[in-house]
């Protein structure tokens, strides 16, 4: 194959030229040629990964501004396995690939030993997954990685994919591992980690699951995707398309990939001279089609000639042209005669490949005591932020879809409801929200039908075996609550599901109020729906404390705990405060 042979030959030329050819610098000094002085110019993006592979095989760093092989890189596969684990705790294949892969590096024997040491559950052997209790894992590395993964997974529902991935890269020391793996060629791999973080930014709304789904699809299809930009380009051979090379210059330029075939003519021909469009219709060729196609071919030939001119004028000291007599007539090589036959062949047989090494670094003389002192200074200069998230403690909020647990409410004194727990609480909250937004009419049939739909969406294999709530009971419960005199009086001003952010003395607060009355931009009453059947005094006290946090954050002094099942309302008040703007 032409590209395989050319890639191997070009890599060998680069390896022999580096360090053996003297280059005159802009300041007049003469120094040996380095990797950053060489540019490989290609007319297109086709199969450029072959040139990258051959260069890296010889230990040469590559800065690719033309390659679209991000989905072929090992670091992309590592990140994909990591994100699949964070997005889906039941994805044991991804968990095994991560733990066995280069980011962690456990051996198969290590994984077998860890699994064998886990206690049996209900006479069944334990399995090593991301949900395994770290205290049960004896392997120190596996235990630390498991703790980090579980910490990261707890943030999936509260953070964006870009922030989660960036934190995961730092927590798992991915940059250090990648840098060690590639040694003096690590800049490209590290830049690709940053490119994946940037790729995740557009999924701030759709979330981690959507990002993982799309990244998996692109990886499986080897979708063309641009790699990260390498900052330390002076230490790497640059791979650039000819179009991108306009206005740039390098001491040595090598034209590559010229066996790429030209684009086939389109069915429709646009003649620029008279701005007319020509095409065949029903197998009949119009009289002007041949002339229009000839004019188009001439324009394309002139454009290719201009592109080759750009390529040949990018070299300051040495231009190396390919000579491939076997190339087809419909290729970039054959489109313009550069006179290769009249030029002498490049002789590099006498040049020996020199060992490439990374830039020497100053010795690190930092002692353990010095490091501890500097760390103390950093800690003292950075304020410690404590986040308070009252809503995280609610049992009737949806958590990990693969770890949904049917929570048993406190035993009630009067009523017993089948299926009471997380799913029932979620549906009740949703029904109350849609009552207030006007999406759902406060009518029995509509509420029951909506409850059935929500129930079908929430039931998973993890919870379908347990008792499920009754849509009729839930709709009746929600309708009774929305009709309570205290709620009916406030209903015209109630706005559901509002985020709350506030700064307190030594802490930051984030949460979500189930509903608030807002009048002229001012918060009046904060309401918290509760689905408990018979909450204990301790539970009531905890709920009141949560609501007081919201009252303090919004600057109002009146709150209401509304127990949907029993229709009970508990007033919660704080000292007088001036109202603040609601956001």
UniProtKB/TrEMBL annotation:
Domain spans labelled UvrD-like helicase C-terminal: 1-247
Highest rank taxon of the organism: Bacteria
Annotated spans, Disordered: 354-375
SUPFAM superfamilies: P-loop containing nucleoside triphosphate hydrolases
GO biological process, alphabetically ordered: recombinational repair
Organism: Mesorhizobium prunaredense
EC number(s) recorded for this UniProt protein: 3.1.11.5
Entry GO MF terms: 3'-5' DNA helicase activity; ATP binding; DNA binding; exodeoxyribonuclease V activity
Biased composition (Polar residues): 354-369
Record keyword DNA-binding present: yes
Name of the featured protein: Exodeoxyribonuclease V beta chain
